[in-house]
Amino acid sequence: MKSKILNLLQMNSNGYLSGEQISGVLGISRTAVWKHINSLKNEGYIIDSVNNKGYKLLSDTSEVNNSSLKSLCNGYEFIQFAKFLDTVDSTNSEAKRIAMDELHLEGIVVADEQTNGKGRLGRQWTSDKNSGLWMSLLIRPKLKPDAASAITLVAAAGMTKALEDCTKLKIGIKWPNDLIINGKKVCGILTEMSAEINQLHYIILGIGVNLNQVNFTESLSDKATSLKKEGAEVSSKQLLGAFLASFSEFYKQFLKGDMSQVIAFHQAHSVTIGKHVQIISPIETREAYVLDINADGSLLVKNDLGENEIVFSGEVSVRGINGYI
Amino acid sequence: MKSKILNLLQMNSNGYLSGEQISGVLGISRTAVWKHINSLKNEGYIIDSVNNKGYKLLSDTSEVNNSSLKSLCNGYEFIQFAKFLDTVDSTNSEAKRIAMDELHLEGIVVADEQTNGKGRLGRQWTSDKNSGLWMSLLIRPKLKPDAASAITLVAAAGMTKALEDCTKLKIGIKWPNDLIINGKKVCGILTEMSAEINQLHYIILGIGVNLNQVNFTESLSDKATSLKKEGAEVSSKQLLGAFLASFSEFYKQFLKGDMSQVIAFHQAHSVTIGKHVQIISPIETREAYVLDINADGSLLVKNDLGENEIVFSGEVSVRGINGYI
């Protein structure tokens, strides 16, 4: 109910809405309206209350919270639940728990803080309170397990576009799923799936974006950055809103089998094409020169024997050898 | 502790073990030994107790239970926990819950009854109390997600060999993972996985074998059978013991990258090779004639255009059109 009131106030941010109007539209008592308004104020929304006129939203809180998350997610088909948490072990773990209990739901988990945030291959991902956007999308496209790599590309394109919409920074994509500013990582994506041999049960897209950190540990300071450190002030709410809009478009195309815009986006933003990289598989590490990103999302490289070779994201990691991660 | 006492009794089934000997070996009091012996008797083990001689196991219970499961699993590297349940929603679901809580454990779940047993693609799997072997193995090979299909073949070969070791019935394999007696299904395998793009987190091999059902519902009676219906009396304990032994051998080879024996076993037992089948994908259904199973486990067919074509288990289901399922 609180998020519905917030919605009404946001839609009417040019004028005042009386308690009577709100209670009429939502079918609740004026006392209930008053209580919800106070609760919104406690969450950081600045709401002006004037006798005989009513309420007006002067300023949204800048961070995602329970009410604003529900407002932001309104209208997206692939979001049937939106869960906000002050703190969580990791948003991917929470999304997995929901996925196991609710076999058909799709939705989103956002947290202010992760106490055990995870990067790829079990690595730690620092995610302190209010310092970034820590989120996981739980989606259930009816596809084969090998579609998971392509969805990672969709998410990377969506977040890159969102960061460009919210800042003036130049965002690079280190194929397939790290976003880079000035050679340092600002966003990582951890895609996990649960599947049978020939059908996905669900995919969880875990996305972490560093927003407000200024100090990084010594081991991270060469490799990681935040929007603030790069001179951009973006709220988690603003970024999440922009991401949902851009992801939604790319994801719709993907579900129709059309990856052309996503791939073009990757090609245009790649910091990998035209670089010497290391192709790292569980078995060996080899050097290669990256020629292009193919229409199916795989990487076209010239290997150390001088032959053209195709690299699938399901098979290897790529490590740059020119400064970036 | 109870399962350790059972182990001692099984190893000494030719003579009597005194309470003093048992208490000495296990470092527990003679009263504790006596209590555990009584508890084993309550579970159905027939144990002779003679004054001044001690205890002798006259007869094992025929069904898997908590103590016997632990004894059976003793010594297998890929089993670090063994959980027996009288009843469970599904052993795969229980194994998933354990997999999420214990990030490194491998092990096994066996239940007397599944209230919500599952076949592939969410289909129901009837699994009444004491009527079959309902089990799930949780394993964590450090491999890429596409290895899951091959592990299904390993499990199918292991269970086929176990059924041959325990009965004189001719067992057929409907590629990749259904076991057939006289044209009817006696065992199904549901392989589920959790993974990142390029690394498996875990695989759950759910295996259901019909042992004692005599009456099947009308819709199932043409398609399903049980060992008992085919004239063989095999206990769940006997079958599980045989399966763990044969699976363990095939799985060791698989982990070394050697699928040759598993594939040869599939070729020798295939009810699919030399048959006209339907190749069913999410997009279309086509007829084909099966020529062979390839060295990598894929199916070589002649398609309806007369061309040779390779079919991967990750891509299609195969439905026979000559009577079997």
Structure keywords:
homodimer, 325 residues, alpha+beta, Arc Repressor Mutant, subunit A, BirA Bifunctional Protein, domain 2, SH3 type barrels, 3 domains, seven-stranded mixed sheet, 32% helix, disordered C terminus
Could you outline the blueprint of secondary structure elements for this entry?
The structure is a homodimer of 325-residue chains.
Chain A: H1 2-11, H2 19-26, H3 30-42, E1 46-50, E2 54-59, H4 66-73, E3 81-88, H5 91-101, E4 107-114, E5 132-139, H6 148-166, E6 172-174, E7 178-181, E8 184-196, E9 200-210, H7 218-221, H8 236-255, H9 260-269, E10 276-280, E11 285-293, E12 299-303, E13 308-311, E14 317-320
Parallel strand pairs in A: 3-4
Antiparallel strand pairs in A: 1-2, 4-5, 5-9, 6-7, 7-8, 8-9, 10-11, 10-14, 11-12, 12-13
What does this structure look like?
Two copies of one chain form a homodimer. Chain A is of the alpha+beta class. The first copy, chain A, folds into three domains: 58 residues, Arc Repressor Mutant, subunit A, CATH 1.10.10.10; 202 residues, Bira Bifunctional Protein, Domain 2 (BirA Bifunctional Protein, domain 2, 2-Layer Sandwich); 45 residues, SH3 type barrels. Helix content of chain A is 32%, strand content 29%. Chain A has a seven-stranded mixed sheet, sandwiched between helices. In chain A, a hairpin with a 3-residue loop joins strand 1 and strand 2. In chain A, helix 6 packs across helix 8. Chain A is elongated and about 80 Å long. At the A-B interface, helix 5, helix 6 and strand 8 of A face helix 5, helix 6 and strand 8 of B.
